[in-house]
Amino acid sequence: MPRNTSIKSVLIIGSGPIVIGQACEFDYSGSQASLSLKEEGIEVSIINSNPATIMTDKVVADNVYLLPLTCESIEEILQKHNIDAVLPTMGGQTALNLCIEASNLGLWEKYNVRVIGVDVAAIEKTENREEFRQLMVDIGVGVAKSKIANSFLEGKEAAQEIGYPLVIRPSYTLAGTGGGFVHRKEDFDAALNRGLHASPTHEVLVEQAVLGWKEFELELLRDTNDNVIIICTIENFDPMGIHTGDSITVAPGMTLSDKCYQDMRNQAILMMRSIGNFAGGCNVQFSVNPENEEIIAIEINPRVSRSSALASKATGYPIAKIAAKLAIGYNLDELQNQITKTTSAYFEPTLDYVIVKIPRFNFDKFKGANKELGLQMKAVGEVMAIGRTFIEALQKACQSLETGRAGLGADGRQWRNLDEIMDSLEHPSGDRLFHIKDAFELGVPLESIRKATRIDKWFLVQIQELVHLEQELRRYQLNNIPRDFFMTLKQKGYSDVQIAWLLGNVTEDQVYDRRKELGINRVYKMVDTCAAEFPAQTPYYYSTFEEENESISSDRKKIIVLGSGPNRIGQGIEFDYSCVHGLLAAKECGYEAIMVNCNPETVSTDFNMADKLYFEPVFWEHVREIIELEKPEGVIVQLGGQTALKMAERLEQLGVKIIGTSFENMDLAEDRGRFSDLLKELNIPYPKYGVATSAEEALQVANEVGYPVLVRPSYVLGGQGMSIVINDEDLEKAVVNLLKNLPGNHILIDHFLDRAEEAESDSICDGEDVHIIGMMEHIEPAGIHSGDSSAVLPPFGLSQAVQDKMEEYSIKLAKALNVRGLLNIQFAVKGENVYVIEANPRASRTVPFIAKAYDVPYINIATKVMLGVNKLSDFTIERKLKGYAIKEPVFSFNKFPEVDKQLGPEMKSTGEAIRFIKDLQDPYFRELYNQKSMFLNAQ
Question: Which residues cross the membrane (predicted)?
Fold first, then answer.
């Protein structure tokens, strides 16, 4: 059936601010769905309160509403536009819950809007734990023994009937919020209370715990003809008991028998058909008994899920794009495969490679947090790697994490305490994968590791083989490693850094040079959805070590944009927004735009965003070889946060041109000591400071500049390691801790300006002119990280004289640092005195916020300036903000109820929202203003 031509206008509901459990994968899904509908000539309106996303950009939708995700906001849009249909399946649980609320209020009926992509009854069936359990029983799909409870007494009765261990699963929550395991009767009351309070309907499922069973996810698509295809089967490396968002996952499934796989497929299709008559995407989760392959259903999500983005990137099949077209009436066989351009979308993807996803954690931001993984998701991001084998992909994923690891071990960071290792295996945290390898190195038998972890033996054998390879490598020196064995090491994912460490007294560059002498080169294979059965038209590549290279470098002028890697606190979706606009601007300027990134959740790793995509770790060895193959005009590093900036020095040493501000000037701004010397030369006020490399030097500096002092390392993002201390004892502890975690780093010690206000500016410089794109006044005082503070654009309480000084200092610094592109400066304001705290000659987390508030494509402008294609004078910039825009930080402390929620110089927020007010009499603003007064008076 062709598309429903009566649908001319669609509203897409977004997911709101980034929180743990609902991150930028929904920015990817919403953006893809919007562009898919616009291709059909449909007018697309989007509601989302997140300013850092591509989804809320005018390149994506016809009408963008940066409004709170409430029914009042929905009705405001419905009154302005003649909306025919609403698509709520692209914004995670937030969008689905809002759709239900609007339905219950009769909004869709009142404005004659149909819900597409799902039906409300299906949402109710899947989110109501008892309805879901009963439906599975009715259709003959296995479920764990369970009972529903709406009260404390009902929960106690259910526990008594089922027996321990148990799982508490609250209804209508996201990422396992409020859920958990209960192993002992003594712990049940507290867990039940927590679950009942977490559920908006005060309802929990008390369920038999199938700990140690395997876990699988299937991503499905269904059309109006009831055709269903399985896009991807994903196997969890970790067994049941760890939230799938916190688990390492692998595609395709590695340990399933064909019989079990076919049975699981049939059950997934039956489940999708049973929950309602709708067309779109669906995610189904199963648990499998490793003893007899008994299958039970865990849950079904009738929407694009967190795993949909992963499955899309893993297969090359754009799930959200196709799901959007199915929602407006198309059938699968009427749509084209976006990769091959010749086969239909009714063609299930086939993988001739393996993908591995590893979650990224940020426990360092939540001191005292319980790091043990369970049913409540705690990861802040993830990486994905592609390899010809599981172990190659696993090592590449470890290199992508940006936690200082060069692969799976073999990098000098191994644990050696057997008791600690075994405890880690039994009580999993984010590092368990590495501790499995450590256990093998210490000689722990495979069966002991399997019993402690309950991880399938097949995976453990793969890791154990690495230990045997490393033992063999130690028999050689660099100059006598046999070529075949060297090739085997590279095919097993070993980085040159790991090989150098294993050999000892050898550098990474020496290993690199030696393997080049032996003709062992990285080649690139295409992601084509069909295991090379049909030619692919989309340039989407991963690396491996074989003979044939499928990535042919063109003779066009090229620009490489380095991505920001995994999301984490301090470096999130705003940098992906910047990278995407950098790609678009480079293409507009006539360059072949090449993207390098490893984050499956993001828009930048969409196969049709860049001219060429390398889904590779943003890790030196990988980046270097892509540059050698492509020979670009230059590399853009200032859009990808600290990830890309860390590459700048090595790019400089290799003779690769850095597009925009030079490495020397970026380094000058990053080196806190040299930067303060520059401020002194420019006669720009700054807090008294000193630089130390030891605790003894730090004590001397602190007593010279005067307490309280702000202690911070150079070259970090998101306030990592920053603290305010008031005496020698606290200072000594802080410095010793920093030098332990960041050895060799310089420690900057500033006099802390108490009772000071904080403000910041963002600007663009083309080498001659400087354009201040925005100045913001913070609500929280100096001492609270800017990412954790509400910020008001433009300033509301700073005198004109203060604003003039901020502008003067911004222009002075932009010119002194010879900035080409973006510059963010943070100020402390005390009375009429303005002090510069720091300057960052790169994209900042506030640029997307300013761009959305003023409705100006600032990243595009900055990129064209960086490329030297345009001067600032070429642009006519018209700001459209009437009133004020407020950036509101959003936190995920509910995931870590045991930690201190006190804000300080180290960033803790996971996302942000934007709110517009017409004037300063707005009640919301008055509350913030009173809060600011209270902060300043209380300091």
Answer: none
